[in-house]
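Sample entry (398 residues):
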Amino acid sequence: MNVNAQWIFQTTGVSVPLWDIEFINENTGWVCGEQGVILKTTNGGNVWEIQNTGINNKVLYGIYPVNDSVVYCVGFFETILKTTNGGENWIAIENGPAGQGDSYYSVFFLNEDTGWIGSNSLATRKTTDGGSSFNNQFIFTIPRDLFFKDAMNGAGCGWGATIGTTTNGGNNWNVEQYCTPGLGCEDFYRFSFIDDFTGFVVGRSGTTLRTTDFGFNWDSVGFVEGNAESMICSRFKSDSIGWAGGTSYLFKSTNGGVSWKRETPTAGYFTSIYAINDSIVWACGNPGRIWHTKSGGDTTVNITQIGNEIPSGFALKQNYPNPFNPSTNIQFDLPKDGFVTLKVYDVSGREVETLVNEFKKAGSYIAGFNASHLSSGVYFYKINAGGFEETRRMILVK
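Predicted structure, serialized as C-alpha cells:
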C-alpha cells in the first residue's frame, strides 16, 4: 500500500483546537485555532510555523488568504486580524475584550478590499476598503460559512438548517430552511461551491444537500450512513468528489454525496477541510491536529483474497514480517459472509488505523498495513467478525 494513499498526521507543535485551514496553492497555507493560534506552512505542511498574532486569549475561528500576502482572520469577541506580508505581522482591526461582544464565525473576501464576515448577531459585516470600515447587513441566521461568486451574488449557511442568498452584495438576504424529516432542522456549519452554480452542504446529522442554481434551491441527494456524530465540515472539489468530517471520522463521497464511505484515520475531531484538487487535501481539528493526503484520501487497504476455498473457521494469523518496517501483512479467515472490522491500536489502547471496515464474503484474505506515519513501538491488531474477536501483537522497528 502506497503511504501517499493514507491520511498522514502533520506535526504542528500546538495542542489547542484548530478550527479552519485554507491554502492558496499546494505549498502555502494557514490554519487558525484557539488561544490566538495561527500557523503557516510554505512547504506543503512538512513544517508549520507559529505566527505571532499578539492575541492569546481568543478563539480564532475563520481564516481567509486572499493571496500570499494578504490574509484575514476572525474569531470570538469581536476579533478581526489582517496581515499584508503573509503573516510576518498581524494587525488587529478589531480586538474586543475577552468575553464581551459579538463572535465572528466566517470570513470571505473577493479581493484585498471587499469581503464579508459572519457574526453571531445574525448579521454579515461588509467592507470595501480592506477592513478600515464595516457595514452591518442582517441575514436572520448565524452565518457559519459564506461564499460570494462576485460583488453582488453570495450565499451563507447557518444554524437550524438555514441557507441564505443575496443578489445585492448582502444588503438583503433571502433565507430558507431545509429541514429533514426524522432529523429535524440540522445545523449547517460549512458548505462548498465548485463553480458559480453547483454547491454542496452536509448537515450536522449527515444529510447531504446539493444546489445547481447557486443556492436558491437545494435538494437532498444522500446521507452519511453510519454517522453517529456531529458533522462539522465538508468540502467538494468537483461534481462527484467530496469529503466530510466531524467529531470522530472523515468520510469521502465519489458520487456527488449520494453515498459516503468512512476513511481513516479514525481518531480525530475534524473541524475544517481544504482541497486543492481531487487528490491533495488537508484537514484540521482537535487537539492541534492536521492531516494531509496526496491521493484524495483513498485509505481503504488493498485486500487480497487467497484462493477460492472456504475456511473451516474464523482465524486471525500472526502478521508477517514481524518485527516490520514499515509494511507488514495480516491474514484473516472468514468461514461465512459478514461485516468485518480489523483495527490497529497503540499500547495505550488508542485506535490508530482501520484496515477493514466493510462486508466481506467468506474466504481467506491478506490485508496490507503501511505504518510509515507511526513511530516505532508495540502495536496490537484486532478483528471482529460474526461474533469472533481476536487480538495479536506486532512490533514496528524503524
